Amino acid sequence: MEQYRILTLNAIAAAGLRRFPDDRYVVGNDVDAPHAMLVRSRDLHGVAIPPTVRAIARAGAGTNNIPVSEMSTRGVPVFSTPGANANAVKELVLTALLLAARNVIPALRYVNQLDPQASDLEHAVEESKKQFAGVELPGKTLGVVGLGAIGSIVADTAIKLGMNVIGFDPDITVDAAWRLSSSVRKAHTIDELLRQADFVTLHVPLLDVTRHLIGERQLAMMKPGAALLNFARAEIVDDAAVVAALDGRRLAYYLCDFPRAALLGTSRVVALPHLGASTAEAEENCAIMAVDQLRGFLEHGTIVNSVNFPNVEMARESPYRVAIANANVPNMLGQMSTAMARAGLNIHNMVNKSRGEMAYTLVDVDSPVPEALLAVLGAIDGVLSVHAIPAGRTA
Fold first, then answer.
1. Fold for domain 1-85+277-309?
2. Is 222 helix (H, G, I), strand (E, B) or coil?
3. How confident is the model at residue 119 (pLDDT cuts 50, 70, 90)?
4. How much is the pLDDT for 178?
5. pLDDT digits (tens, 9 = 90+) for 89-106
6. Phi and psi at residue 384, in whole multiples of 5°?
7. What pLDDT is recorded for position 394?
8. Which CATH class for the 86-271 domain?
9. Do the domains spanning 86-271 and 310-390 agree at the CATH topology level?
10. Cα separation of 391 and 54, whole Å?
11. Hey, which of 118, 175, 218, 268 has its CA 20 to 30 A from 16?
12. In which element (H, E) is residue 35 found?
């Protein structure tokens, strides 16, 4: 029975690590020749990733700290844990909404500078509180940009609070669409959403197309006095444009999870120290999900929630399985099948899925897979990685 070696590059919640069976896994931060890597925030760009690595899993939603393109060329799937921290982020977004609606931060600053020895303290407070009068959320419009695991439950929570919700997501998945409340109005463009919303919250990944998604032009479209919330990625918003919009009183608040230098000291910026997923529950959920995905891949070749591979699952019908990652080009399946036939293997079951330029194939055969065949498969032009996956205990 094969023993798998897992290199951890950050502190991973024990609830997740306990899901690795002790008799089949060696797990730690000093493991040599690892089969897989488990990471949270550690930046792997420029890091020499061992050739033994078959998969990388991040206990978190984003994978900007992982060289995904490089791993794709090596046939290495990169996993993330979308939705595992969704409730934690949702609660922080709700906190930010209330902070903005009720002007809590400037009110706290005012109270903190009061003189406790002043004889007219109570009178001064009563006279000053009117400057912090806020609004109530029912009837206000929340614009949600990105309707994935987090955006959809933010939208649902806002609806339950009596808010009107308008959403924009040109790449919404079928699963996300099923999760979404029918009360969410669809915006056909982000400009349409920005013009209508009293509060705008961002829940999109950082990609080339989303970098500075909100800049000077977009901020100019927003309602005067609107608030912008960013608990996704810092670079989605142009910091300089936000500061200018705040200084010009176009924007009432910018509430985010990223205390960047350009924002510090700016009035009406509420910047938190990246607390979105910083709950014990979220860290455990992410760790459990990441570990289960790694185990599924290493023990059965299945792929769920990879950012660079297609989702592939196939019921195990044989103790002998081969997993092959390859470029998505014609005649790959034909060459694989021919190689297996020449090696005297009967194919019991097969599944092949593709995603963009990447394809992935699982093959169950009726007899043991010789090492010579793995070498032949690996030598096929376009094959990126190939592994025999023996059956073993999964509990």
1. Rossmann fold (3.40.50)
2. coil
3. confident
4. 82
5. 999 999 999 999 999 999
6. -100, -35
7. 40
8. alpha beta
9. no
10. 17
11. 175
12. none
